[in-house]
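hiii, so i know i said id send this last week but things got crazy w the move. better late than never?? heres the sequnce for the chain we talked about at the cafe, plus the structure i predicted for it. fair warning i was half asleep when i ran it
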Amino acid sequence: MTTLAASSTARQGSASNIGRILLGFALLYAVYCGSAMPLAAVEPTLSALARTLLTLATVVVLELSLFRQPVAGAMGRLGLGWPGARWLGVAAVAGAPLVLFFPVYSALTGTAWSLPAGWLWTYLGYVTVSGLTEEVMFRAFLFGRLRAGRGFWAAATLAMAAFTAVHLLLFLRVNTFVAVAATLLAAAGAYPLAYLYERASGSIWPCVLLHGLAHLITVVAWPAGELTAPLAFMAVAAVSPWLVFAFGPRR
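okay and structure toks below
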């Protein structure tokens, strides 16, 4: 009887913990999405930076209030610590096909591409709001919280389900093609990015690097009517992150 009672209590505690994590994630994502409209009139990259700061501050508030963490623990949940050069290098290797895609595709097809004026500033906005902010939300907060007391694959699957579910909201805001592509890429990258986050000792920077490289396509200009290149790039972006699994811990 004592064993059964203990088992029941453990299950209830686990369910309660998942409930708090999902509640915190829902509130966090609401702030992330809800801040877009009030900042719509602001220059896009400045808006992205503001949304990132607001979302990071929300993580700290949730850790302090919902999870009763001390200030140091709440700040640590952001995952902003140094990961070490090795895992940044692994992220760079996994992201190399994304960088090489453009010259290789151009050489194979003769299709010209270019970077418009001010592309680096625009790209900074994408990396900040879609790379840094989403990695804090999905890897440091959601996966990091779910990982406690669970195996890697179980935690990564739960995080992937939530990550994919919120991307379904894109169907309400953008065209179907963009929504489908973003959802599929989110699902494809969930496990590799969770693996990278864990191997980097809870630092999000390798994930930000790899995630950011997947957004290179957003600042590249193609000839009018060119649809094959973006589709081909998305195929590469769905596969190349899985290269991180070729790298394990040092023996």
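btw The chain has one domain: 2-246. thought thatd interest u
miss u guys!!
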